[in-house]
Amino acid sequence: MALRMDFPLLLIFHFVITTKTLKSLSSFGKESQLTVVGVHGNYSWPVRDKAVHMEGDLVLGALHMVHERSEDKICGPIMPQGGIQALETMLYTLDVINARDGLLPGVKLGVLAKDDCDRDIYGLEQAVDFIRGSIANIGSEYSCHDGSDPVILGVIGAPSSVTSIQVANLLKLFKIPQVSFFSTSTVLSSRDRYPFFLRTIPSDVHQAQAMVELVRMFGWTYVSVVYEESSYGMQGFNELEKLLKANEICIAATEKMIKDSGVAGQATYDKTVERLLAKSNARGVIVFGSDQEVGELMQAVKRNNASHWFSWIGSDGWGGRSLAVDGNELEVEGSVTVQPLAFEVNGFKDYFLNLTPENNKRNPWFVEFWEQQFRCKYPGSSWTPYNDMFNATCSGRERLSPGKFEMEAQLQFVSDATMSFAHALNNIHSDLCGGASGLCDAMTPIDGALLKDYLIKVNFTGLSGQEFAFLPNGDAPARYRILNYRQVDRGRFEWKTVGFFLGQHLYLDSQSTKRIDRKEQITDLKFRWNEPDHPESVCSRPCQKAEAHHMIDGSACCWTCSPCHIYQYQPTKYACVDCPMGTIPSPDRRSCMEIPIAYLRYTDAIALVAMAFASLGILATAVVMTVFIIYNDTPVVKASGRELSFVLLFGIFMCYAMTFILVSKPHEITCGAQKFGIGLSFSIIYSAILTKTNRISRIFRAGKRTSKRPRFISPRSQLFICGGFVAVQNAVGIIWLLLRPPRAVFYHADRDDHQLVCNDAVGAWYMVGFTYPIVLVIICTFYAFLTRNIPEAFNESKYIGFTMYTTCIIWLAFVSIYFSTEHNTQIRIATMSFSISLSATVGLVCMFATKLYIIIFHPERNVRQSLLATKPVMPSPKLNNCYSSIHSSCHSNGRQDTAQSTQSEYGDLEMMHRLRPSASFSSTLSRSTCATQTMTNGTSISTQTLELIAKGTDDVHL
């Protein structure tokens, strides 16, 4: 049984709908010659009760926008493509369904089709007729052949999203399923708000994705958006806004095209275009609207002389439709629009082209279409505001031809919507009636909720040859065709397919698109006749590599470019950040990379030279030490002071060895060895030399004043003195190590430098280790200066003096080089190595070369007689004879031990006597002779005692 409602409730509901409609349309009656007559809104034109009534056992309702909207009338002129063609597609599909034996056997499917004039309120009032049969037999203009009211099982339509939303809110109250073929608003995807709404066209969510992909493909980052003020336009804009933001594409200007509140005038569209032109960099414009509004917009573009300025990306509401482009060809040229992917309905084109007013009586609006198409008035036709202007009379011989008539590209969705009801009802019939022909009692009436459940599960192959199935939310799969409006010949424009958008992917290359649709010829995208490439639409051009974006007025797409410093990288395109010391920007400037670590390596040329020099020095030192060990008991070795000579040779060896430590890779151990060993090696050398010079100086100074032997001139004393000097340096080194522990650090003399050095190699810290040796050098030089006038027989002091003078020159040069190479530690270390080795070489050559020469090449001079034969400093022959007699006497008496004297004591005493004046020296020698005679009287003078005297002589001759 049909759903029944109380009579008062029906009257209230019908009154509310009619009152809203009259209020919405009252403004049109003032400006037109049409007058509203009667409470129920019976108009002289349009005829409200005009409809397609196709009888059947099961009846569907349908809403089509047969007429366009009008600025001053309720309905505008006939809409050829989206109106008449869509209506005829539905009727053709019903004919095919009813002609098929396997589909709804024994059941005829009928329809009640109404015109909504592309107005939501007017369409809502028309939809009231669909619920009359479900409520009561009151006020119905339509009835079945048996006189009963038709019960509408479901509704096909409406085309407009705005109208579909209004109608869906009404139909859900009565659980009447609705399947739209052109409504794409995202709002309609909500199952909670519109549980009985389905559609065979994809949602605008996917359409917005396709449009944004086109923007990205063009490389645009700054676009304007124009949308109509309707649910379709506003929901589409909301999706666009989210997707554009997610893809870092900025909206330069946002403009609305008034629709729901009334139709805007030319001035409104002109101001819209002026605001778009004000954003001169945003040449790309996305237009989300219907064909009628877009047509008005393009007229405003023409009036503002901007025909070739904008590049349009359009929605399916106007893409591929003639209403938007007729008369606006140059303004629309180059547009790229998104259109739901639809294929030709097989057989419909031939069916439609064969229609005439004579053979198509079931369509009450076909005569209007015929009059508009051929610009003539059909005999016997009713008056309309649009056929009154035609003076010619239709002859009846006019025929539709393919070349002069453009077919709507999305008719597949109308056919699929009709087929979906047929297959759902067929499945219900199969389940409830067991396949028996005709309707069974179980299908009278059919529950709307049950029909909706069967609808959402249908899966069929439509008249286009394409499979169709609803998504779980009632939407259609996301499949779009990309159209390009272009000039194919001079003055001839066409919509051409240039690609597809399937799922989440845009296909524009010819190979991919041919695989998708092998029937359709795919062409390349083109902007204008003489300008194939689409214009640039960016607020600011991309910055070059190593340039940062500085945003303007908070916009994410408008910026100025400023170059980054050579040592800055870009973690983001908006910032330049300094690379840490020791790193430089990578080639792509996205990160920093470490500079190769620089330090003195064994393989470096300067290190090889330094090590070669040091190796020769070590070899020479080893030779000298070996010779001295072999000839340890010879007069030359004895005369040089064997103990201090070996100490001196050890210090020289350490200096040479320091080169290998200095050129090794910095490490805590090597750094500690450097800072402790450099000062120690020099301290050993100059402590030994200082001890020698001090001893010589004291002996000769004492020899001038007294015959008393100076204190602390014995070998043991000399070693203790030398060790004391070295101990001071050890203390300095230990304190330095404790206060400033050695570490290997990175040193950056400049931004391109990345040196691994010891922490004391930077600055003047190494001079701490050199301070004490420098003091020793100064003192040694001072003593060398004091002993410069020692008679030529005593050459040791002269060699020491030459050593110290040369060392001072080397050190003066080294200090200046040391401070001038502060930023290049490798050169500094190499210079230090050479300076240390050179100082050691000076000491080795000056102190040992002459001795080595005598020992090896003149061994005849390496005897005591030779050493004593040197010219003494005697005041008179008499005194000399006295000395000779003492010397002879000592030799003649053989070797005997004495507990009172040592070799060095006699030598030192003799040295003192040689420097005394004549008288003094004579008396001293006399006393010495007496002492010698006294010892001789007690016991004979031993050979060892004589050697001690000879040693004293040797001490001053070499």
From TrEMBL:
Its membrane topology:
Multi-pass membrane protein
What PROSITE patterns does this protein map onto? G_PROTEIN_RECEP_F3_3, G_PROTEIN_RECEP_F3_4
InterPro entries per the record? ANF_lig-bd_rcpt (IPR001828), GPCR_3 (IPR000337), GPCR_3_9-Cys_sf (IPR038550), GPCR_3_C (IPR017978), GPCR_3_CS (IPR017979), GPCR_3_mtglu_rcpt (IPR000162), mGluR (IPR050726), Peripla_BP_I (IPR028082)
Q: Which residues cross the membrane?
A: 605-632, 644-664, 676-697, 718-739, 764-787, 799-820, 832-856
- Pfam family membership, one: 7tm_3
**Keyword tags:** Cell membrane, G-protein coupled receptor, Glycoprotein, Membrane, Receptor, Signal, Transducer, Transmembrane, Transmembrane helix
**Sample GO molecular function, one term:** G protein-coupled receptor activity
Q: Which GO terms describe its cellular component?
A: plasma membrane
What top-level branch of life does the organism fall under?
Eukaryota
Q: Where the protein is mainly located, per its record? A: membrane
Q: Which residues form the G-protein coupled receptors family 3 profile domain?
A: 606-871
Q: Where is this chain's protein located in or outside the cell?
A: Cell membrane
Signal peptide region: 1-21
Spell out the family assignment given in the record's similarity comment.
Belongs to the G-protein coupled receptor 3 family.
- Protein name, entry field: Metabotropic glutamate receptor 2-like
